[in-house]
Amino acid sequence: METLWRLIQDPNMQWIFLSCTLLGLSSGVIGCFSYLRKQSLMGDTLAHAALPGICIAFMLTGTKSLLFFLLGAGAAGLVATFGIGWITRNSRIKHDAAMGIVLSSFFGFGIVLLTIIQHGEYGNQSGLDKFLFGQAAAMVGSDVLTMSIVSLSLIAVCTLFFKQFKLVSFDPGFARGLGYPVALIEQLLMFLMVVAVVVGIQAVGVVLVAALIITPAVSARYWTDKLGFMVVISGVFGALSGGIGTIISSLGSNLPTGPLTVLAATALFLISILFGPRRGLLAKRMLRLKVARSIDEEQGHKERQLEGGATL
Amino acid sequence: MSDFWILLTGSLVASCCGILGAFLVLRKMAMIGDAISHSVMPGIVIAFLISGSRDSLVMMLAAMACGLLAVFLIQLFQQSGIQSDASIGVVFTAMFATGVLLVSLYARQVHLDQDAILYGEIAYVHWNTWTLNGVSMGPIAVWLLGITLTVILVVIGLFYKQFKLCAFDPALAAACGIPVALFHYLLMGLVSMATVSSFESVGAILVVGLLVIPAATAYLLTERLSVMIAMSAGVGIASTFIGYGVATVLDASIAGCIVSAAGVLFILALLFSPSHGVIWKKWRLRRLAQ
């Protein structure tokens, strides 16, 4: 408990805690839209696809600045998105296989670049492989600042365009009929997801960042049927998992932030699937029992009536 | 000699994955392959902690159990109303996170570093050999992969008709009295087995590349399942050879180069396939228009 208190007072820790919480919040919010648009695994694909972008950005600039990584990964993510769309449109390959192809070939290429960087004459490369699994504790002040600003702007954009995003997520055809630029809004949502994923990579790593997009949104779906509430709950779940993950990982020396954050999100998901009102497993079981009992009662009532009729 | 063993290991991995990948691509389950390859992680670490060795039957069984558990959980969540995409995402990230956490907690006991999990260590395959009565029998990985390939060939060969029907029309298969669920889990078990035995040589993420990319390439080139399976394995083996060559020239990750080579072959098939290639289709359209 004392160590925990000391950690909370440590200003460095406070910053990292704050940025991880904000990160969880923003990816939880974005995740809701991608869940409703049935694109949950796009987050995973974008994260893997970001690796070559990050490596190329490093090779070109020679610095480990989050901003350049963001640009490189964003560009790679957009190429990956267009690649998937192009493959599914122009061949008989289905969406899931196209995702698998793009994901693994981009990642494979990224690993080739990463090993070239490691074996080559790029001096200051140590820590680049931290991107694979994420290590929030390794972040420096400027990273924290960039991450917080980006997360806050993601949330701001989502609040501004909430109505449009809602419409496009539920009924793109209707949105088109109303005259909204649906393709543009869809591209914007995809771009926001790319940004959320890239920022998340630093904290939880390429492989696990998808969980920050998917898990809080799925959990939030168990608590409400209204998109507004769902976005808020998902954001809160994301923020909670980010915060809990950072705190637990700072308690021990060998505890990586990424997996802990993901496991915290999974724990929240399990709680939701069990205890969610109406949709949760417990609520469903209760409902079934109640219905069974009322049927029993009705049956009993009828039988009594029948018996009554027989004696008359 | 090391070249020979690396190429042999790579070809075996490519054959195992290529054969199973054909079914995954046809059943639209490419991302389930991805999920399984990530989910076997905790099984591998736990088995390693128990048995203390890398190449053991315990590891194979534990990892298969984890793979099947992942498939089961994905199905369970799907049935309780979560979209299939999202349930895949939730399950595999949770299991992979558990695996990574276990590796970092027991880093001293477990000689599996995180890099090896991601990229594999195909370059060191020939160092880890197996001796029987004092006679060196070659790398353990090759034996393990050989056994896996044999099992896959035997199972698919015996139930080829059933697997084929389940791949193209599960409803008809169920109507014909084929236990579709059983074959589903059998296929998933084989995928887990292939993933585990390939794991050490090519790493967790690149297994997916070899499962999906060659199969998709073959899917663009043929209309027959048997030809597709053979082609898929062939494309995988070709990528292994090209990738290894490129990797030696560039001094880069072998597994990464193999998957990149597979990606390039896929692009070539996508553009120039005689029946489904984009360029031929355009050309045919233009000729029709004239």
UniProtKB/TrEMBL annotation, chain A:
PANTHER family from the UniProt entry: ABC-TRANSPORTER METAL-BINDING PROTEIN (PTHR30477), METAL TRANSPORT SYSTEM MEMBRANE PROTEIN CT_069-RELATED (PTHR30477:SF3)
Assigned keywords, A-Z: Cell membrane, Membrane, Transmembrane, Transmembrane helix, Transport
UniProt KW S-adenosyl-L-methionine keyword: no
GO BP terms in the entry: cellular response to iron ion; response to zinc ion; transmembrane transport
InterPro entries per the UniProt record, alphabetical: ABC_BtuC-like, ABC_TroCD
Membrane topology: Multi-pass membrane protein
Cellular component terms (Gene Ontology): ATP-binding cassette (ABC) transporter complex
Compartments, record wording: Cell membrane
Transmembrane segments: 15-36, 66-87, 99-117, 137-162, 201-220, 227-251, 257-276
Homology family: Belongs to the ABC-3 integral membrane protein family.
Organism, as annotated: Paenibacillus algorifonticola
Biological role stated in the UniProt entry: This protein is probably a component of a manganese permease, a binding protein-dependent, ATP-driven transport system.
Protein name stated in the entry: Manganese transport system membrane protein MntC
UniProt xrefs under PROSITE patterns: PROKAR_LIPOPROTEIN
Upper taxonomic lineage: Bacteria, Bacillati, Bacillota, Bacilli, Bacillales
Pfam families named among the record's database cross-references: ABC-3 (PF00950)
UniProtKB/TrEMBL annotation, chain B:
Places the protein is found: Cell membrane
UniProt GO cellular component terms: ATP-binding cassette (ABC) transporter complex
Family matches, as InterPro entries: ABC_BtuC-like, ABC_TroCD
Main subcellular location: membrane
Highest taxon above the source species: Bacteria
Stated family: Belongs to the ABC-3 integral membrane protein family.
Keywords on record: Cell membrane, Membrane, Transmembrane, Transmembrane helix, Transport
Family annotation (CDD domains): TM_ABC_iron-siderophores_like
Protein name as catalogued: Manganese/zinc/iron transport system permease protein
Signal peptide start and end residues: none
Gene Ontology biological-process annotations: response to zinc ion; transmembrane transport
Chain segments annotated as transmembrane: 6-25, 32-50, 56-74, 86-107, 140-160, 172-196, 202-221, 228-247, 253-272
